[in-house]
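Page 42, continued from yesterday. The earlier attempt failed because a stray header line got pasted into the input along with the sequence. Redoing it now with the clean sequence only.
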Amino acid sequence: MLSMMQLDDYRLLHLLIDANENYSSDVTRQVKFETDFDFEVYKSTDGQTFKISLSIRIKPVRNRKHCSYKKIEIKLEGIFSFPPGTEDKIIEKLVPFNCLAILHGLARGIVSSVTGNTQGGKFLLPIMNFVEKINEKAKKQDD
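This time it went through. Structure tokens are written below.
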């Protein structure tokens, strides 16, 4: 069954892959990353179209010299739409959670594709807890 929500378009707004030129693959260590992400939701006046942006920032914080990247940043935006007359309760279930999941999948593909050609090999963005961030933003808006 197809979703009522459609991804009409997306664009890459920012991409930074900062390689660690001192990286050596001779020694393998567990690298810990600091991950941060944010999003914005813009709704059209008809309430059926949304522009959603997703920004992701990652940098190693433990064993940095054993990581092939100093920093990775990506920002995407997508245009999502619903057929005219779609009930608000359906839209509220899908926006922004499903939009962010779709953009995250696109971001993972872009980053792994670009980093696949670097000395450390492809980097897969970690899975993110969008529910927590959505709830956090909703709480800030309510305050």
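Notes: The two ends are 39 Å apart (CA to CA).
Reminder to self: strip header lines before submitting.
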